[in-house]
């Protein structure tokens, strides 16, 4: 067995990002609960973990990955045969195994667990521990919903509020932080919009207040910003960095002509040249990390390879901390405009993503495909202590609703009432453990349901707006890529039929039927009328799409009944 995660000659796969420290701490808690024996003890009464994922190789060997511990190993043909014995007899037949050290190693890394352990219950406990953790507060603050661009697929639509944050809102934000400060140890802030840098002075002032408060209370403060990059000069980047905003997400959707068509200025002029010039300047002159997002749809999917070559030629990675990632254009809201027509299906996007990610890694623009932070990196919408606050002081749970006052959970001036509103109750009621697809998913410990918004407001976007993350669609591709980057496998060992879209190593994926059932369950839990929450501005087609279905036990889709096409 070649243990990719713990071989001292191979760098631990989970040391590649800051998030991995939290992941390893979680894995350690799981190991303590598993009470695994040492490799020198007699191994009995164990079973194969339900969170193991197997990727077959052309040689007959396999890659074995566990989504709880994030351990990955390569098993030879003979070692895999020993592993498969557990499917029949478990470790009561330990005397049949010629290589006890192999079995001990599998146990140590979580591939085998105590037969009395309820793994789903352990995942659930860890999930709610993270969800209700009072030591961490996550705030997304939109100081304005105005924007200087007119992207056709914008979740806000084109009718944006142009006002900036009012003078009293920062006071109320500080009150919210103080309200939860008794056990608070870490405050994480994301600046959002609209285009947040259209209110940069407000960002600077509020940052200073939060930093001063946190320093006095010995609370760790960190921030990042989501910006279109047009106003992100080196001077602005320096100001942000000095206020502990150490990372920026910037979007470029293709080469100049394509980008300017997809993300034009309000005036109709292009934005590509200014943004690229800013990025070069920021990377050369400041330590601000740039994560370049490329939104992929029918309009630009064929051009993305050329964009990657262009980015590599600009030598951004040599200038500073720069990386690229890809996201789908999908219609998460009814206002999402061209996204309804230009978005790729999940299957189409996943195929494109696997190809683009490989190309990006080869050019040095993207790191290894590391497992998602999952439960420890859960979406702000799922966190009890996570809020999205817009310029009006409306409090939301999700970025995608920040523009829509009808979906707010309350107002920042009344912190105590945030969980008492109808929408607040909906967010509180949702969990990934209330639907069979998530419960049976092999990457649940890494995913945690991924996108609560897709469940709570299912039907207000299009059919492409499903919650399962990229790892669910490209599990085998990501694992093989990581193993290849470590020299554990070579390209010829890949089996095309192991493509996750075909093999579904992680389990059945969500579709429209399972999403409707999950959404209706949330409304049943709260006793609220789903009809009240249907967006009346949606088209008749969308209203029909979210019509209530009978979700009795008999009619709820089983995993093997779901249409995953």
From TrEMBL:
Q: Which UniProt keywords apply?
A: 4Fe-4S, Iron, Iron-sulfur, Metal-binding, S-adenosyl-L-methionine
| Xref: Pfam families | Radical_SAM
- What cofactor is this protein dependent on? [4Fe-4S] cluster
Give a yes or no for keyword S-adenosyl-L-methionine in this entry.
Answer: yes
Recall the GO molecular function terms of this protein's record. 4 iron, 4 sulfur cluster binding; catalytic activity; metal ion binding
Tagged with keyword Metal-binding = yes
InterPro entries in the record, alphabetically? 4Fe4S-binding_SPASM_dom, Aldolase_TIM, rSAM, rSAM_sf
Per the database record, which ranges form the Radical SAM core domain? 143-288
Record NCBIfam families: rSAM_more_4Fe4S (TIGR04085)
The entry's protein name is Radical SAM core domain-containing protein
């Amino acid at each position: 067995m070649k243990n990719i995660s713990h071989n001292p000659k191979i760098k631990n796969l989970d040391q590649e990002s800051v998030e991995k420290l939290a992941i390893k701490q979680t894995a350690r808690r799981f190991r303590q609960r598993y009470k695994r024996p040492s490799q020198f003890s007699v191994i009995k009464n164990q079973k194969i973990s339900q969170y193991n994922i197997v990727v077959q190789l052309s040689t007959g060997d396999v890659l074995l990955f566990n989504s709880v511990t994030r351990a990955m190993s390569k098993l030879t043909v003979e070692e895999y045969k020993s592993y498969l014995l557990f499917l029949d007899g478990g470790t009561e037949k330990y005397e049949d195994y010629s290589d006890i050290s192999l079995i001990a190693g599998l146990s140590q890394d979580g591939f085998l667990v105590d037969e009395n352990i309820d793994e789903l219950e352990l995942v659930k406990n860890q999930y709610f521990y993270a969800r209700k953790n009072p030591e961490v507060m996550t705030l997304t603050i939109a100081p304005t919903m105005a924007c200087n661009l007119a992207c056709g697929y914008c979740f806000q639509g084109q009718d944006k509020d142009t006002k900036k944050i009012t003078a009293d809102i920062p006071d109320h934000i500080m009150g919210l932080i103080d309200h939860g400060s008794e056990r608070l140890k870490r405050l994480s802030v994301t600046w959002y919009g609209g285009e947040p840098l259209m209110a940069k002075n407000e960002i600077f002032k509020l940052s200073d207040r939060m930093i001063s408060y946190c320093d006095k209370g010995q609370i760790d403060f960190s921030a990042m910003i989501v910006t279109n990059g047009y106003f992100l000069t080196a001077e602005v980047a320096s100001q942000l960095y000095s206020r502990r905003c150490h990372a920026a997400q910037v979007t470029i959707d293709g080469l100049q002509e394509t980008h300017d068509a997809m993300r034009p200025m309000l005036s109709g002029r292009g934005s590509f040249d200014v943004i690229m010039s800013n990025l070069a300047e920021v990377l050369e002159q400041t330590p601000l990390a740039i994560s370049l997002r490329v939104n992929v749809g029918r309009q630009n999917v064929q051009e993305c390879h050329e964009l990657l070559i262009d980015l590599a030629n600009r030598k951004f990675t040599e200038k500073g901390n720069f990386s690229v990632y890809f996201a789908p254009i999908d219609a998460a809201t009814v206002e999402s405009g061209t996204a309804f027509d230009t978005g790729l299906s999940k299957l189409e996007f996943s195929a494109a993503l696997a190809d683009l990610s490989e190309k990006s890694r080869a050019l040095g623009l993207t790191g290894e495909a590391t497992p998602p932070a999952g439960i420890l990196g859960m979406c702000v919408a799922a966190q009890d202590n996570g809020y999205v606050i817009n310029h009006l002081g409306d409090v939301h749970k999700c970025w995608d609703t920040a523009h829509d006052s009808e979906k707010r959970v309350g107002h920042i001036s009344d912190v105590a009432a945030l969980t008492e509103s109808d929408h607040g109750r909906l967010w509180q009621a949702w969990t990934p453990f209330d639907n069979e697809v998530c419960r049976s998913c092999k990457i649940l410990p890494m995913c945690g349901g991924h996108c609560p918004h897709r469940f709570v407001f299912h039907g207000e976007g299009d059919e492409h707006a499903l919650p399962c993350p990229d790892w669910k669609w490209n599990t085998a591709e990501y694992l093989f890529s990581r193993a290849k980057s470590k020299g554990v496998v070579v390209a010829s060992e890949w089996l095309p039929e192991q493509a996750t879209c075909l093999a579904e190593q992680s389990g059945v994926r969500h579709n429209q039927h399972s999403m409707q059932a999950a959404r209706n369950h949330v409304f049943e839990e709260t006793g609220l009328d789903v009809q009240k929450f249907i967006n009346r501005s949606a088209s008749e087609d969308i209203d029909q799409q979210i019509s209530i279905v009978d979700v009795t036990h008999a009619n709820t889709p089983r995993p093997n009944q779901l249409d995953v096409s």
